[in-house]
Amino acid sequence: MSHGKKGSESLSYKAPIKNFATHPVLKDYFKENSGFLSIQWVRISQNEQVDIHEHDVDTLMIACAGTCLLTGEVNKVFKEGDTVLIPKNFKHGLSSYGGELFWGLSLRFCATTQLLEQT
Predict the structure, then answer these.
(1) What InterPro entries would the database entry show (predicted)?
(2) What is the CATH number of the domain that holds 87?
């Protein structure tokens, strides 16, 4: 399956293509919002933090590597493999934990392009 070209060389990907709109955790959000999805990498290094804030849409956080601390209305260790649904208007933040580098994905669902316009 060819998905693009680099110079005159065709790139071929053998990994399966996944439709995230059918994933059991995500399908209801796609159905309800039937619109746009913003996906952002979140990186927290030692002694770094994301200040407590809130969004006007639901956010799904996926911990991809390392560990951090979820802060705000709930304080909880968030480690590789964990997922958490952060409801809209829920005050939350992130901070480093145990000196580990943390990588996560933040997925926000909305019915308009409002998230695309904020980046």
Answers:
(1) RmlC-like_jellyroll, RmlC_Cupin_sf
(2) 2.60.120.10
